[in-house]
Amino acid sequence: NSVLATQANINSARAQMQLSNLKKYKETLQNLNKEFNNELNSNKRIEKILERLFDGILKLFTLCKCDLTPFATLLGENAGVNRYNVSLFLQILDGQVNDLLLKSFFKQKTQPKVKGKVPVTTVREDVRPHRVNPIQKVVPTNPCPLCVEKEQVSDVIDLLQFVHSRGEAEVKLANRLKLPDGLDRLHNVSACNLPQSRAIIQRRYQ
């Protein structure tokens, strides 16, 4: 009898443990279902927002009269805006908006002034295009072709040379400009000290 009672107690404890585990699993499943439904609803809301956003981009694209012809083959049947080609549409739209701003700003600056009439402002102050600085403010002048040719001819390397990437070219240019004669080539032919420059100037005025 004692053995049977012990076995009954073990079975009862095991059943209670199974019921407790089953209850925990049900609660976990309910929580996971709630999280899944919340994520599903959130994704649906995001999809609706994206659809409205894509529709707005397409309307702006049409309003600005952007040309999609060069990319028709690339887009294929996906002529509308979607998550896969939205970056392309935004890139084209950004360029077109900048062009329109520049044209409007140029027209605004070149319109004749009439006395007693307030000039029409098309482009607001806070969205005006950045002023384009003259090239003389960026560098004194273009590199002298004679000095560049001399440097290229004198730079003899027996090893096989490869084309620099953009980053490598920028690093090399920055290091070159740090040298004492880094800006010596920034002059025109008439200011060049090489013998070839005098011959060119003489032929020019003959």
UniProtKB/TrEMBL annotation:
Keywords: Coiled coil. The keyword Coiled coil applies. InterPro entries: ODA-DC/CCD, ODAD1_CC. It comes from the Eukaryota. The keyword Coiled coil applies. It holds the Pfam family ODAD1_CC. Residues 8-77 form the ODAD1 central coiled coil region domain. Residues 15-49 form a coiled coil. This is ODAD1 central coiled coil region domain-containing protein. The lineage of its organism: Eukaryota, Metazoa, Ecdysozoa, Arthropoda, Hexapoda.
